[in-house]
Design a protein that fits this description.
The chain is α+β, with helices and mostly antiparallel strands and 125 residues long. It has three helices and seven strands, in the order H-H-E-E-E-E-E-H-E-E. The protein has helices spanning 3-21, 27-40, 86-99, and strands at residues 45-50, 53-55, 58-60, 65-70, 74-79, 103-108, 118-122. Helix 1 (3-21) packs across helix 2. It holds the Pfam family PDDEXK_3.
Length: 125
């Protein structure tokens, strides 16, 4: 399955979660429900994945955690914010670079329509 095919399933599942729950809940609630939806779709999903950094040939745990990684190809970063800003995009791009993945999706569940809270971020390896 390609990153774009996975992305399409992720966005569909996120829309379903948002339709059922609406805005205003904790990020962890959306994470749990989105994980359930994606698993029901038959996708492999890992939550709160540790992401070490390499520093001077050392592999160090610097406290980074990927919210969700789907099929080991697409990173999902969940937010419950008024709007995305540049630091959210930079955070996801850093996760993509450190994990050597190409595609990430920012999902902001604090919106009236989820399509207004979706942002794809591409890592041009």
């Amino acid at each position: 399955m390609t990153e774009n095919e996975i992305s399409s399933k992720i966005i569909g599942a996120a829309i379903e979660v948002h339709k059922q729950l609406g805005p205003g809940l904790l990020e962890s609630t959306y994470e749990t429900c989105l994980t359930h939806e994606l698993t029901e779709e038959g996708l492999n999903v890992r939550r709160q994945v540790l992401l070490p950094i390499e520093y001077k040939s050392l592999r160090l745990d610097a406290g980074y955690r990927i919210d969700l990684i789907v099929e080991e190809k697409v990173i999902i970063e969940l937010k419950v914010v008024d709007e995305f800003n540049s630091i959210h995009i930079a955070q996801l791009l850093t996760y993509l670079k450190l994990s050597k993945n190409k595609l990430g999706i920012l999902l902001n569940f604090n919106v009236s329509r989820l399509k207004d809270g979706v942002r794809r971020v591409v890592n041009n390896l």
